Amino acid sequence: MGIFSMLRRDESARSTAREAMKEARRGDQAPSGGALEKIVTMIRDLGLDGKLAYSSAADIAQHARRGRGKRRPEVAVRRIVRRHRWGVTAGGFVTGLGGFLTLPILLPTNVLEFYVQATRMVGAIAAVRGYDLEDEEVRVRVLAALLGEESGDVLKNVGLGPVAGAAARGVARSLPVSPQSQVAGAIGGRLLRRFGLRSARLFGKAIPGLGAVLGAVTDRAQLNRIAKSARRSFPPVA
Question: 166 lies in a domain?
């Protein structure tokens, strides 16, 4: 069972996506605990922990470490990125095949599917490099990596510097708002833009055929940026 088919069958995920799309069309900012924060939490948990036949980030990391990947962690990292690059490329292609006729229906699932796969990729890279995916700080950093080149600034704003550890967790606990909520809010802004069907970026995706190619290319490029952020955010543990 792939993540695409799972999300189509998961009524709670579909309902939350519909709520997020309504917020996007109204132009609202998602309040704490709103549809977008729920969806970011769902993305985090499904990407890192897996569900049913959908493998967790730890399982993906273990599989990537087989053979040469066990002796050379960077080989495992490349395997992880390559696997997820193909996954999001296929998802973006399928979403744009029908153009404007199917885009309003497939877009919510594609957005969820992309970010779940990206979360799992980042989590697997972190696991290969020696980080504990049960650690709440690590889980926040995984979410932040989804913001690409903006991840460092976002972490700094929530009181988490580039080095993980007990000192950083102590700062995080003293903040009035949890880092999870603040990072989720930043990702929620991205989701709003991608759920917004009036986005100029979606114009090309609404053209049958061309939309499939454009969807594949843009999703692949965005995943590459996230992979670069993940490598930077989770340096090998000494």
Answer: yes
